[in-house]
C-alpha cells in the first residue's frame, strides 16, 4: 500500500538563499534563481524526492514574472515539459505528473498538471522577489530577463530603450537626449484610468480592467497574459486581484495554498 498525506509530502525550494520579501502592495515583477522539489514518504519509510522545476544553474535564467504573471516563455517550457513527459533543464515532467496526477493514474490530465505547476512556481516567485526599486523602467513596457544579475531587464517586443529607465514605442514617441517625448499622432481608442484597450476580435475594441476581470485576468482576452480565473482547476471561490488569480476556497480534492488550489493528498492501494 502506497500513500502520501499532508504530513508526509515534502516541499522545498532549490537554489539560492531567499531575498528580502516584498511588501504586498509592491508591483510583483522580477526573477528568482530557485526551483522547487516535491517528495513523497511511503508507508514503508522510503522517501522519494525529485526537483519539479530546475534552478538557474540548470536552465540558465531562473523563473520570472511580470505583474504577477509567469512570463509566457516560462509557461511554455512547463507546458511542453509536462505534456511531453520530458525531464530536461527546465522541468521534470514525469515527476510532476506522478506527484500531481497520481502514482497509479493511467490517464492523468497533463494540461491541468501543467497549470498547477505554473500556479505553484508563480506563487513561489512572488514570495521571494527582491526589490528592484530604482532599477526597473518607470513604465510597464519591459520584461525582467533573469535572476543573475538580479533586476536585469529588456524592453518588450516593439519597444526601444530610452535613457536608463524607459522603453518607448518608436511609432508614437521619440527619445531626444534620453528623455521620452510624445509624437503628434492621430486619435486612438482610449480608456479611463485603470482600464486597458482590448480588441474584440471583430475589429472593434473594449475597455477592460485586466487587474480585476475574472475571465481576463492579467491581460486582454486571447493574449498570453490573460487567464480565466473561473476555469482554473479546483477553484470554488476565486477573484482577480492585481492581475493575478487568487483563490479563497477550493472544491473537494484540492487544498488552498497561497491563493492557489493544488491537489490534496491521496491514498493509493
TrEMBL record:
Residues making up the signal peptide according to the UniProt record: 1-23
Database matches in Pfam families: CPL1-like
Listed InterPro entries: CPL1-like, PriA/CPL1_fungi
Residue ranges occupied by any Protein CPL1-like domain in the UniProt entry: 205-258
Protein's UniProt keywords contain Signal: yes
Domain of life where this protein originates: Eukaryota
Keyword tags: Signal
Name by which UniProt lists this protein: Protein CPL1-like domain-containing protein
Amino acid at each position: 500500500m502506497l500513500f502520501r498525506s499532508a504530513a508526509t509530502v515534502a516541499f522545498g525550494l532549490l537554489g539560492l538563499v531567499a531575498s528580502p520579501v516584498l511588501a504586498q502592495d509592491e508591483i510583483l515583477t522580477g526573477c528568482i534563481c530557485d526551483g522547487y522539489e516535491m517528495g513523497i514518504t511511503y508507508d514503508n519509510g522510503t522517501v522519494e524526492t525529485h526537483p519539479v522545476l530546475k534552478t538557474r544553474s540548470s536552465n540558465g535564467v531562473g523563473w520570472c514574472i511580470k505583474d504577477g504573471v509567469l512570463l509566457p516563455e516560462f509557461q511554455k517550457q512547463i507546458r511542453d515539459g509536462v505534456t511531453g513527459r520530458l525531464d530536461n533543464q527546465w522541468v521534470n515532467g514525469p515527476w510532476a505528473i506522478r506527484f500531481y496526477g497520481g502514482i497509479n493514474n493511467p490517464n492523468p490530465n497533463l494540461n491541468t498538471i501543467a497549470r498547477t505547476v505554473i500556479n505553484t512556481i508563480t506563487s513561489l516567485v512572488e514570495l521571494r522577489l527582491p526589490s528592484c526599486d530604482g532599477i526597473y523602467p518607470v513604465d510597464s513596457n519591459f520584461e525582467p530577463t533573469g535572476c543573475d544579475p538580479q533586476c536585469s531587464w529588456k524592453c518588450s517586443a516593439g519597444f526601444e530603450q530610452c535613457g536608463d529607465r524607459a522603453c518607448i514605442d518608436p511609432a508614437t514617441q521619440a527619445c531626444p537626449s534620453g528623455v521620452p517625448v510624445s509624437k503628434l499622432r492621430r486619435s486612438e481608442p482610449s480608456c479611463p484610468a485603470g482600464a486597458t484597450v482590448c480588441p474584440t476580435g471583430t475589429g472593434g475594441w473594449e475597455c477592460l480592467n485586466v487587474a480585476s476581470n475574472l475571465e481576463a485576468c492579467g491581460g486582454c482576452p486571447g493574449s498570453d497574459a490573460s487567464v480565466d480565473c473561473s476555469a482554473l482547476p479546483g477553484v470554488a471561490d476565486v477573484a482577480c486581484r492585481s492581475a493575478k488569480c487568487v483563490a479563497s476556497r477550493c472544491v473537494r480534492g484540492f487544498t488552498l495554498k497561497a491563493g492557489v488550489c493544488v491537489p490534496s493528498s491521496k491514498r493509493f492501494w
